[in-house]
Design goal:
The protein is of the alpha+beta class and about 575 residues long. The protein has 22 helices and eleven strands. About 65% of the residues lie in helices and about 5% in strands.
Length: about 575
């Protein structure tokens, strides 16, 4: 009866809307052209035709719903929800576009007032985008999280607001969880498991996790996909694609329509929980030699494409520095192990976890008293081609050594114009890259306020070139950059950003020539690795001594307390104006 009333109301609203539309059409025609009696008659007939069509559509929809089974009824509701989400996103998109136009009208882009107003518009836009995505939930939250990692493209205000989507995801109703169990197993949760907690431990963009106990007595975590995601997937992808094209039309340098197609394929794999379980086992096998990385065991009898059951493993969030300290562990050890893990995945194994945000990595104390990492959520993975791995290893080593010719060759192999080698280096580092510094000193040591301003100005001034480079890159590089952004954020929050670049550089150098065969090639690889390692270590020692010397000068008042030898030159920002 509830659904009957809902459809009756919807049909009446539709009929009313059609009547109002027809009336408005008649009024407009009357005013504009002194409508004749014949025209008015045609308008009335058109109104009646539309009214009859709307009523017929509503009646057919109501009849289809009443005679459908439970699963078909849910899909009919999913269609209505998809249309509702489309209308919401179009409303929010139009509202945002009008806000920018109204606030910036008549302002000179070269004026300071324009810059200040644009920042205010970005702050408003970020909050509106967060609200819009949360109100539509599902895949829109996942897209929001993906865009939050694209720090080279989106403004800082959007990044800050969209990053909140990792922690604030609405829970779904208990009835929905029961329905998906009935569809997957033909049983309720309390029948499949000996004990099942209906209140979720955590909620994410595509699923929520419940605590349960199997009939064998095993404590497990059950990941339950939101019930309508697969059915609403085509409609939601269409909506996102429409919004991205609308944004590209409003702001031509932001041509990102290609991004939706690439993400859609990855998201479809992520909705297959059996695929996620296989990824987990594959990744565990590939990095088994790193003894500090742990993976939950998959319970296959309780796993389907929409429900994943795995071993329950406890730990604290990787960015929870207070909890890490309480465990008697150090943030440096945790950060170094995170950096080492993903450097090995990128440069050696080629099996890359592409969504390592803080909620997917837990930390616990191992038997040896040192940090162990628990890696979760294996839905979004990328298997890298050997050619791409070789190119990235060479590129990373060349960036450290300021080897411009090798950087250009790597760009050429990836179809990027050679002249954009410095821009590509900044995309990889997500930090300023300075060619006028000696080898080793051009890698980021901190991320200062000036660094942040510089990257924001670069994104604004060279947005078209950046988006062009991103589009040219192999599709797999999109997830590589997502991985870079997530790991960079973790190490930054742990206060060990500089160690990440050194660890990645060392790993890239050690395995730079691993594809070569033969004795001479092995000897060449051996000496090049040691040469590179000594160069990096020597520069690290030089930096340490220099920091100590600067600290001493600050203490005796010979230099200002806010002096930072590693900050970029202040005139770089002026050069971007």
């Amino acid at each position: 009866m509830k659904m009957l009333r809902m459809f009756t109301t919807a049909s009446w609203q539709l009929c009313r809307g059609v009547m109002m539309t027809g009336s408005r059409c008649t009024m407009i025609r009357t005013v504009s052209s002194a409508t004749t009696t014949t025209t008015a008659s045609k308008s009335r007939r058109l109104t009646k035709l539309l009214l009859i069509s709307a009523g017929g559509f509503g009646s057919i929809s109501l009849a289809s719903y009443c005679f459908a089974d439970r699963q078909q009824q849910r899909r009919i509701k999913d269609i209505s929800y998809t249309i509702n989400r489309l209308s919401k996103m179009l409303y929010f998109g139009s509202k945002l576009a009008l806000h920018y136009w109204w606030q910036l009208r008549g302002l000179d882009p070269a004026d300071e007032e324009y810059t200040r107003t644009m920042k205010q518009c970005h702050e408003y836009g970020g909050k509106l985008a967060n609200h819009a995505v949360n109100s539509c939930s599902g895949l829109f939250i996942k897209f929001g999280q993906i865009y939050a990692t694209m720090t080279n493209v989106i403004p800082e205000e959007y990044e800050r607001e969209l990053s909140k989507l990792y922690d604030a995801v609405p829970e779904r109703r208990e009835r929905e969880v029961e329905m998906i169990f009935l569809e997957e197993f033909g049983k309720r949760p309390d029948e499949v498991f000996a004990k099942f907690d209906m209140k979720p431990m955590a909620a994410a963009s595509l699923a929520q996790v419940h605590s349960a106990t199997t009939h064998a007595g095993d404590h497990v975590a059950v990941k339950v996909q939101y019930i309508n995601l697969r059915d609403s997937f085509p409609g939601d992808i269409f909506t996102v694609d429409l919004l991205v094209k609308f944004a590209s039309w409003l702001h031509p340098p932001l041509k990102m329509s290609w991004l939706v197609e690439r993400i859609a394929g990855n998201l479809m794999d992520e909705l297959d929980f059996e695929h996620e379980g296989r990824n987990c086992e594959k990744c565990e096998e590939s990095v088994r030699y790193l003894g500090y990385v742990k993976f939950p065991q998959i319970h296959w009898p309780y796993t389907t494409k929409r429900i994943l059951t795995m071993e329950y493993m406890e730990g604290c969030k990787v960015t929870d520095t207070a909890a890490i300290d309480k465990l008697g562990l150090t943030c440096r050890d945790v950060a170094n192990k995170v950096s080492r893990l993903f450097a090995e995945q990128l440069f050696v194994t080629g099996v890359l976890h592409s969504d390592p945000h803080p909620g997917n990595i837990f930390v616990r104390k191992g038997k040896d008293g040192k940090a162990e990492l628990i890696l979760l959520d294996h839905g979004l993975y990328q298997t890298l081609e050997p050619r791409l791995q070789i190119c990235l290893r060479k590129m990373w080593v060349a960036m450290v050594l300021s080897d411009i010719e090798t950087m250009k060759r790597c760009c050429s192999e990836l179809s990027i114009p050679e002249t954009e080698y410095a821009q590509f280096a900044e995309i990889l580092l997500m930090n300023p890259y300075y060619l006028n510094r000696p080898a080793g000193e051009n890698m980021p040591r901190t991320f200062t306020k000036i660094d942040k301003q510089y990257m924001a100005r670069i994104a604004q001034a060279r947005l078209s070139e950046i988006t062009q480079i991103l589009e040219i890159l192999p599709p797999s590089m999109l997830l590589v950059l997502r991985n870079f952004a997530a790991v960079r954020g973790i190490t930054y929050n742990l206060g060990e950003l500089n160690q990440r670049y050194e660890i990645m550089a060392e790993c890239a150098a050690v395995h730079r020539d691993m594809h070569l065969k033969g004795l001479c090639s092995n000897l060449k690889a051996f000496f090049s690795r040691w040469s590179f390692t000594l160069t990096v270590k020597f520069n690290s020692l030089s930096f340490l001594l220099l920091r100590l010397y600067i600290g001493f000068l600050k203490r005796i008042g010979r230099i200002p307390c806010d002096f930072d030898i590693f900050a970029p030159p202040a005139d770089l920002l002026a050069n971007l104006n």
